[in-house]
Amino acid sequence: MTGQAGTARRPTRQRAAIARALSGSAEFRSAQEIHADLAGSGTRVGLATVYRNLQAMATDGEVDVIRSPDGESVYRSCSTDHHHHVVCRSCGLAVEVTGDAVERWAEAVAAAHGFTQVRHTMEMEGLCPACTSSRQRGTVVRRPTQAPRRVVDG
Amino acid sequence: MTGQAGTARRPTRQRAAIARALSGSAEFRSAQEIHADLAGSGTRVGLATVYRNLQAMATDGEVDVIRSPDGESVYRSCSTDHHHHVVCRSCGLAVEVTGDAVERWAEAVAAAHGFTQVRHTMEMEGLCPACTSSRQRGTVVRRPTQAPRRVVDG
DNA sequence: ATTCACGATGAGAATCGTTGTCAAATGTGG
DNA sequence: CCACATTTGACAACGATTCTCATCGTGAAT
Predict the structure, then answer these.
(1) Which residues of chain A lie closer than 8 angstroms to B71, CB-CB?
(2) Which residue is nearest to nucleotide C27 (CA to C1')?
(3) Do A142 and B106 touch (CB under 8 A)?
(4) Residue B74: strand, helix, or coil
(5) If you measure CA to CA, which chain B residue comes closest to A98?
(6) Of A59, A71, A124, which is closest to B106 when you measure between CB atoms?
(7) Which domains does chain A have, with CATH numbers?
(8) Which segments of B47-93 are extended strands (E)?
(9) Could you please report the per-residue DSSP string of A47-59?
(10) pLDDT tens digits, residue range B19-30?
(11) More confident call, B40 vs B131
């Protein structure tokens, strides 16, 4: 189990490298990706160490974690730009959305229960316009292989 | 990948059993749990088949899927009671919350992008009242073993 | 500065949920 | 009822994550 106590965590070269790698990107990255990045930039860090530190940082609230559709845990440093996605479950089209409404709601609800330092993740999925009309016409052209195009939205 | 075509899916004893097992509970259940349940009730279905069907049903939008913190995919039939959670990342206390605000927001945003048949999941985590005050006093009494108490809220 | 105690690390094995393979069984259209 | 494509099931294969344990590094005490 991840040894964690009341004592402060000990600063190490590896921990710093991981934190740096994480803050370098606004995207969610997997432990393996981060490990590969570090290796690529000449920083030698054990894979297990990457996992342990990411977990620890998540526990301490320094990073956000969500599970990618593939089942990998993906991490992102907290302060980065916050947004959500709507993903088409047929073709994989992903649209980025932001909205103060949810943010405020989440905070309000959490606060109502006395929770502090609250973070949240939200995932929405449905059928995109194209796939919707395909199905209405009965011509289900499902695409097994997801080719997640990405469309950013204001 | 899971072979899926434009043709309608073929009804089978196994598929029916899985659907029944799923609709029997309002909770998210893992493929393995469902498989065990079926086996327990005398219905013999291969594990791979359970996985395949759950995936197919998810693709068709018949069930919701999310990843449990343990990394398992957990499924729930769509029509069941919809709510969210706020989980304490220190002690694991979980509070159920519901809110029309998010539901409406999610629908509105998705609709704005032309998406249909939209479903969503949302996860919130922070520090519960108890853990918040512990930390303020500097006495961090972190509990490594999560004992997720559950508190339902209106 | 040197020593100590203990958390942190790394390499590889072990775990375990999930997916792939392929022959046999089953549902459908004709 | 027949031919055929889909589905199933048993088991191997995969891959992300966790565990193990000897060794190393850090902060605190001396």
Answers:
(1) 67, 71, 73
(2) B10
(3) no
(4) strand
(5) B109
(6) A124
(7) 1-78 (1.10.10.10), 81-154 (3.30.1490.190)
(8) 63-67, 73-77, 84-88
(9) HHHHHHHHHHHHH
(10) 999 988 888 999
(11) B40
